[in-house]
């Protein structure tokens, strides 16, 4: 073990020692940003190698969350806007995402796809649906895998689903207007039944949500990390948890 690694290990232990159960967020959501920029910073022309490097970090993140006592983790792997990328970049990325999902299944986690699966290639959609069916009975940490996800589309899909549900009962628009509230919409989101994220982490230095969990993040705390996703370390994760635990959450103000 080198000196630098030893220093990081000691620092990790110091951070862990300062964390109490009350400081641990119930739901952590992560925007895994910077794979392409990491590849370019390393002089790698094939950006899929950046995506592959970033994919290797997903299982580590989930394990860190589990060790910390987090109950739900949401990982944004692909936005609906990303589906417009060139075919020669998108196809390898889909294979990488499929591999990540299978690895999470094999690792024993409860996998919940979050996104518009109808927008995805058939093979990718099948992998995600299988992951949900094969793991829904598993106890413990829930891993929301956000693929083909867009916050505005999620809200539109929720409203559409709500209207269809009421129409199937023979209710009119006027009937719905009389009873509609935020809980009705929340019951039709991709994350229905799960707690909203307490902490949202974004890597790569960007300080914006880019449409991620727009509805659910109304009261979330945010942590922006300068590191590109492939360089994100357990130390960075623990710093994010420490920062969250030190904040006084003021809901609605």
TrEMBL record:
<dbReference type="Pfam" id="PF01255">
    <property type="entry name" value="Prenyltransf"/>
</dbReference>
<keyword id="KW-0479">Metal-binding</keyword>
<dbReference type="GO" id="GO:0016094">
    <property type="term" value="P:polyprenol biosynthetic process"/>
</dbReference>
<dbReference type="GO" id="GO:0033850">
    <property type="term" value="F:Z-farnesyl diphosphate synthase activity"/>
</dbReference>
<keyword id="KW-0460">Magnesium</keyword>
<dbReference type="InterPro" id="IPR001441">
    <property type="entry name" value="UPP_synth-like"/>
</dbReference>
<feature type="binding site">
    <location>
        <position position="221"/>
    </location>
    <ligand>
        <name>Mg(2+)</name>
    </ligand>
</feature>
<dbReference type="GO" id="GO:0045547">
    <property type="term" value="F:ditrans,polycis-polyprenyl diphosphate synthase [(2E,6E)-farnesyl diphosphate specific] activity"/>
</dbReference>
<dbReference type="GO" id="GO:0000287">
    <property type="term" value="F:magnesium ion binding"/>
</dbReference>
<dbReference type="InterPro" id="IPR036424">
    <property type="entry name" value="UPP_synth-like_sf"/>
</dbReference>
<feature type="binding site">
    <location>
        <position position="51"/>
    </location>
    <ligand>
        <name>substrate</name>
    </ligand>
</feature>
<keyword id="KW-0808">Transferase</keyword>
<feature type="binding site">
    <location>
        <begin position="79"/>
        <end position="81"/>
    </location>
    <ligand>
        <name>substrate</name>
    </ligand>
</feature>
<protein>
    <recommendedName>
        <fullName>Isoprenyl transferase</fullName>
        <ecNumber>2.5.1.-</ecNumber>
    </recommendedName>
</protein>
<feature type="binding site">
    <location>
        <position position="38"/>
    </location>
    <ligand>
        <name>substrate</name>
    </ligand>
</feature>
<dbReference type="GO" id="GO:0005886">
    <property type="term" value="C:plasma membrane"/>
</dbReference>
<comment type="similarity">
    <text>Belongs to the UPP synthase family. Z-FPP synthase subfamily.</text>
</comment>
<comment type="function">
    <text>Catalyzes the condensation of isopentenyl diphosphate (IPP) with allylic pyrophosphates generating different type of terpenoids.</text>
</comment>
<feature type="binding site">
    <location>
        <begin position="34"/>
        <end position="37"/>
    </location>
    <ligand>
        <name>substrate</name>
    </ligand>
</feature>
<feature type="binding site">
    <location>
        <begin position="208"/>
        <end position="210"/>
    </location>
    <ligand>
        <name>substrate</name>
    </ligand>
</feature>
<feature type="active site">
    <location>
        <position position="33"/>
    </location>
</feature>
<feature type="binding site">
    <location>
        <position position="33"/>
    </location>
    <ligand>
        <name>Mg(2+)</name>
    </ligand>
</feature>
<feature type="binding site">
    <location>
        <position position="202"/>
    </location>
    <ligand>
        <name>substrate</name>
    </ligand>
</feature>
<feature type="active site" description="Proton acceptor">
    <location>
        <position position="82"/>
    </location>
</feature>
<dbReference type="InterPro" id="IPR018520">
    <property type="entry name" value="UPP_synth-like_CS"/>
</dbReference>
<comment type="subunit">
    <text>Homodimer.</text>
</comment>
<feature type="binding site">
    <location>
        <position position="85"/>
    </location>
    <ligand>
        <name>substrate</name>
    </ligand>
</feature>
């Amino acid at each position: 073990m080198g000196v630098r690694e030893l220093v990081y290990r000691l620092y990790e232990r110091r951070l862990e020692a300062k964390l109490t159960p009350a400081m641990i967020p119930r739901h952590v959501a992560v925007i895994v940003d910077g794979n392409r920029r990491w590849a370019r910073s390393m002089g790698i022309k094939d950006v899929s190698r950046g995506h592959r490097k970033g994919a290797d970090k997903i299982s580590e993140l989930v394990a860190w969350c589990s060790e910390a006592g987090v109950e739900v983790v949401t990982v944004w792997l692909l936005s609906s806007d990303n589906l417009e990328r060139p075919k020669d970049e998108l196809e390898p990325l889909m294979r990488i995402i499929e591999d990540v999902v299978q690895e999470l299944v094999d690792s024993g986690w409860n996998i919940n796809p979050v996104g518009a699966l109808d927008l995805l290639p058939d093979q990718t959609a099948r992998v995600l649906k299988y992951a949900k069916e094969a793991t829904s009975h598993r106890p413990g940490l829930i891993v929301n895998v956000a693929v083909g996800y867009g916050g505005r589309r999620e809200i539109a899909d929720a409203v559409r689903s709500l209207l269809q549900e009421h129409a199937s009962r023979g209710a009119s628009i006027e009937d719905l207007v009389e009873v509609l509230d935020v809980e009705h919409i929340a019951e039709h989101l991709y994350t229905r039944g799960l707690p909203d994220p307490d902490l949202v982490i974004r890597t790569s230095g960007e300080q914006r949500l880019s449409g991620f969990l727009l509805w659910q993040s109304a009261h979330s705390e945010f942590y922006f990390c300068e590191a590109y996703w492939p360089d994100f370390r357990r130390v960075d994760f623990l710093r994010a948890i420490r920062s969250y635990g030190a904040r006084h959450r003021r809901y609605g103000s």
